[in-house]
Amino acid sequence: ASDVRAVEVGDPPTVIAHRGGSAYAPENTLAAVDKAAGLGIRWVENDVQRTRDGKLVVIHDDNLRRTTDVEEVFPDRAPWKVKDFTAAEIARLDAGSWFGPAYAGTRVPTLEQYVRRVDRNHQKLLLEIKNPELYPGIEQQTLKVLANESWLDRQHRSKLIVQSFSADTVRTVHKLKPDVRTGLLGTPNVADLPGYAQFTDQINPSHSTISTGYVSAVQAFTGAHGKPLEVFTWTVNDATTARRVARYGVDGIITNTPDVVRNAVGAP
Ligand code: G3P
Ligand code: CA
Q1: ipTM passes above 0.90
Q2: Which residues have C-beta atoms less than 6 Å from ligand 1?
Q3: Is 174 designated active site?
Q4: C-alpha distance from residue 240 to each of 10, 36, 213, 215 (Å)
Q5: Nearest residue to 15 via CA among 32, 34, 40
Q6: Which domains does the chain have, with CATH numbers?
Q7: Ligand 1 atom at minimum distance from 163 CA
Q8: Which residue among 129, 206, 256, 262 is buried most deeply as judged by most CB within 10 Å?
């Protein structure tokens, strides 16, 4: 059977700037969000973790070393886990110099700062709750921040999807705020989709794990909000792969190079 579906069959997939578009600016920073906005990219993806004093911050790793100067600023605080630092300590770190001198002084944003900037830029947010096993109650806390920032009101709701690799976390988010759209990261067995579809609107797999058959099988199920389950795939950074997954019929492509992918698939 052919694994090729004409890209013209449906609308082009939505393009989502992964970690804000991490090829062009330091990941998960306000600079990345602004860069994506400057490229005309409407959707950004981010990652949320929690500090020692219970503040939510936007950073991918559960450790501060890779994307900040934490080892220089706090040399005696190994192993430099996010959960072992206060928000005030993290606010002192440089989260941009590692990427390039032009970004020196860029900070790790709080979730509040991040969603305000996304809103100001008229962008939409695919928010990932990261490592929830480290942070009991992070689902409720994330929703509380989003509610305080008006991201759960009717106007914003269509601009928000909350995703996680943890099915328990996605289920919890759906239970707490049934109006919020959700995504389950990974490539679950098709046999398990009826269960997941009770609480998720998307299945979001690595591009290396999917085929036309898998994407079609997912989309044949009805998601938590009564529409076909969507597929947002990651992380696609070249035109050839972007065209391939577009032919599979994915609904979204999460990418570090959103301009490259947009041009490849003819997205607006
Ligand atoms: O949004 C999908 C993707 O971000 C999942 O992988 O490790 O980059 O968070 P990771
Ligand atoms: Ca992520």
Answers
A1: yes
A2: 18, 45, 47, 60, 128, 185, 204, 234-235, 254
A3: no
A4: 18, 21, 19, 18
A5: 40
A6: 7-62+110-265 (3.20.20.190)
A7: 1
A8: 129
